[in-house]
């Protein structure tokens, strides 16, 4: 779990800092308890009950398909601690998804395809400034570029895709596509186009 401090909290005495840490620990425990609480309150009659919106936080924690999760918190200069956890579903490399990505890469369009041309699939594209690129190098550069968008302007603390993200002057949609919670399949293709290499990755479901 990543720890962040505001400067004001670091200038206090050890006693104050200790109180702040204890307060943080208590709030983290309280947050976890509140996420579990809906199952205790509403019950869990059967697996289909996971679709009940009242069980949303419990279902996130209990989902057997979750492969990885990460949490972070932000301590304000007051007594509030903002806590957020992200859960990633298991994602597999899919040959059918790769086929579609490769077919589009071969067009050398050098831009994202129309949604109507890949119904049900999300897509990220990247132009690598070298022909006949080593695929691993080009894909690594593409992934770093797409994921790096989150550091340009941040995302709301709940990490939800909202209209405000679409309206930002800084494009962060490639990051959100990589982090899209419902995407479980990934496939990529690369094609030399003149003096560049065109990288395409597709995600399903979109």
UniProtKB/TrEMBL annotation:
Alphabetized Pfam families for the sequence: CAP
Superkingdom, taxonomy of origin: Eukaryota
InterPro entries, A to Z: CAP_dom, CAP_sf, CRISP-related
SCP domain boundaries: 72-206
Annotated CDD domains: CAP_euk
Name of this protein: SCP-like protein
Xref: SMART domains: SCP (SM00198)
Lineage: Eukaryota, Metazoa, Ecdysozoa, Nematoda, Chromadorea
């Amino acid at each position: 779990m990543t720890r962040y401090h505001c400067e004001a909290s670091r200038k206090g005495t050890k006693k104050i800092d200790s109180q702040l840490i204890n307060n943080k620990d208590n709030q983290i425990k309280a947050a976890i308890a509140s996420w579990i609480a809906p199952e205790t309150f509403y019950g869990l009659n059967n697996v289909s009950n996971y679709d009940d919106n009242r069980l949303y936080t419990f279902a996130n924690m209990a989902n057997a398909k979750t492969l990885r999760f990460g949490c972070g918190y932000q301590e304000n200069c007051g007594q509030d601690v903002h806590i957020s956890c992200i859960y990633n579903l298991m994602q597999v490399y899919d040959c059918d998804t790769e086929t579609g990505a490769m077919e589009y890469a071969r067009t050398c369009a050098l831009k994202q395809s129309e949604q109507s041309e890949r119904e049900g699939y999300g897509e990220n594209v990247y132009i690598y400034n070298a022909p006949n690129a080593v695929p691993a190098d080009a894909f690594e550069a593409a992934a770093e570029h797409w994921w790096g968008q989150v550091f340009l302007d941040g995302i709301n603390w709940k990490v939800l895709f909202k209209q405000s993200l679409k309206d930002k002057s800084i494009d962060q949609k490639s990051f959100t596509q990589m982090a899209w919670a419902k995407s479980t399949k990934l496939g990529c293709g690369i094609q030399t186009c003149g003096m560049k290499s065109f990288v395409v990755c597709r995600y399903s479901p979109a």
